[in-house]
Amino acid sequence: MSTYGACWEKSSLVVALIVIVALFGSLCFFTSGDRAH
After folding, report:
1. Cα pseudo-dihedral 26, 29, 30, 32, rounded to 10
2. Cα–Cα distance between 35 and 18 in angstroms, integer?
3. In three state form, how does the secondary structure of the chain look?
4. What is the pLDDT of residue 14?
5. DSSP assigned state of 37
6. Separation between Cα atoms, residue 14 and residue 37, nearest integer Å
7. 17 DSSP 8-state letter
8. pTM of the predicted model over 0.90
9. What integer pLDDT is reported at residue 6 of this predicted model?
10. Could you give the count of Cα atoms lying within 13 Å of 12 in the half-sphere of its Cβ?
11. What does the pLDDT look like over 1-37, one tens digit per residue?
């Protein structure tokens, strides 16, 4: 049960990291788009 909890914790951490990277990437994309515009 504890192993499952650790796995869940790790996967949620990875998901959070992906969300942050996606947000940052889209932010840079929009910023460069506005700058080009």
Report:
1. 160
2. 25
3. CHHHHHHHHHHHHHHHHHHHHHHHHHHHHHHHHHHHC
4. 94
5. -
6. 34
7. H
8. no
9. 79
10. 6
11. 567 777 778 899 999 999 999 999 999 888 887 665 5
Buried b (16+ CB within 10 A) or exposed e, 1-37: eeeeeeeeeeeeeeeeeeeeeeeeeeeeeeeeeeeee
**Cα–Cα distances in angstroms (integers) from residue 34 to residues 6, 10, 24, 27, in the given order:** 42, 36, 15, 11
Output the six-digit token pair for 17. 């990291």
Compute the radius of gyration of the chain from its Cα atoms: 16
CA distance 31 to 37: 10
